[in-house]
Amino acid sequence: MNKKKDIYWIKNALYLAKHAESKGEVPVGAVLVLNDKKISEGWNCSILSKDPTAHAEIIALRKGAQILNNYRLVNTTLYVTLEPCLMCLGAILNSRIKKLVYGACDNTNNKKNFWKILLRKNVIEVTNNILHNKCSYLIKNFFKKKDY
After folding, report:
1. Which percentage of the chain shows pLDDT scores above 70?
2. Nearest partner of 143 among 89, 106, 111, judged by Cα
3. Coil, helix or strand for 24?
4. Which of 16, 72, 82, 96 has the most CB atoms in a 10 Å sphere around its CB?
5. Active site includes 57?
């Protein structure tokens, strides 16, 4: 585990999350990396695109698959500001990424059983709580302003 590298890429994802927020979207950003190079990126745009699947992770995975010309994103790492939802976890699993790194934990969804399966089968390496406070503040502050 290279924490400096994880921090660097989560900072990139935070920049994208702030971009999403500036557009009125839920502030989540994602960066897909291969061999220390950014392959693709995404930010939430479900509201503007009127697409419930337009989450940051899905967008980054789709773009990455197009760039790599393969739906299997072997040996890549996905960096996300917020713990992925179940839909995104399914896409992450199907994409065959090597590692998932995220900032803030999402306490709104119960994904404990899904995580247990992923970790037990060693399907992907998972690192969490990278820049947790910054990522958490961004998402909490967004919803506080929206008064949800």
Report:
1. 88
2. 106
3. coil
4. 82
5. yes
Model pLDDT for residues 52-94, shown as the tens digit of each residue: 999 999 999 999 999 999 999 999 999 999 999 889 988 998 9
Region for residue 24 given its phi and psi (left: phi exceeds 0; alpha: psi -120 to 50; beta: otherwise): left
CA distance 57 to 84: 8
Domain coordinates in residue numbering, the chain: 3-145
DSSP-derived pairing of the beta strands 125-127 and 99-104: parallel
Q: Which residues pair with 43 in a beta bridge?
A: 29
| Domain 3-145 indexed as CATH 3.90.79.10 | no
Q: φ, ψ for residue 45 (rounded to 5)?
A: -150, 35
At residue 114, does pLDDT exceed 90? Answer: no
Residue of 123, 63, 53, 120 lying closest to 93 (CA atoms): 123
CA–CA dist 94, 102 (Å, integer):
18
Question: One of 25, 41, 57, 83 is an active-site residue; which one?
Answer: 57
Residue range 4-14: average pLDDT?
A: 97
Residue partners of 10: CB distance under 8 A and separation at least 6: 79, 81, 101, 102, 103, 130, 131, 135
